Description:
The chain has 154 residues and is an alpha+beta fold. It has 2 domains: 2-88, 3-Layer(aba) Sandwich (Aminopeptidase), CATH 3.40.630; 108-154, no CATH class. The chain has 4 helices and 7 strands, in the order βααβββαβαββ. The longest helix is centred in the middle third of the chain and has 15 residues, at 90-104. The model has no long low-confidence stretch (mean pLDDT 94).
Amino acid sequence: MSDDLTLVGFAELSATVVRARLLAAHDRFWAVDTRALHHPVWFDQFGGFGVLARSAGGEDAGYLLGVVTADRLAYLHLLAVRDDRRRTGLGRRLVRWFDELAAGTGARVVQAVARPEDTAAIAFHTALGASAHLAKDRAGPGEDRLVLTRSLRR
């Protein structure tokens, strides 16, 4: 259960330390290699839109990297929940934190991008109300992605 967790915005943390810790524990969060998607810019320049879930004992249980663009699009770059914390509601809690922050900046829409074979991510985002459309070659030639879009209006 995620009741013992505290959500802390990356702006309150040392970006370099958090990034190193999350990369060291990468395989507890991801079934595929996402290290290249953890560019320092997501922790430094966009850190104000990131959040980390920490246990009372100081363990990292989940995190979200995102940003709100100048045209008020909230982009959820990465959402990760550690393997032993899945199916506890933590993912939804992290997204709710991001949604509230994004809406407070004027964002009206959230987008995420997923590989077409990532059924867990697609199911998660569609359960939140996202619609999906296939973007051919989005990540390069032959690298299709699904763009998942949902409204922040309640």
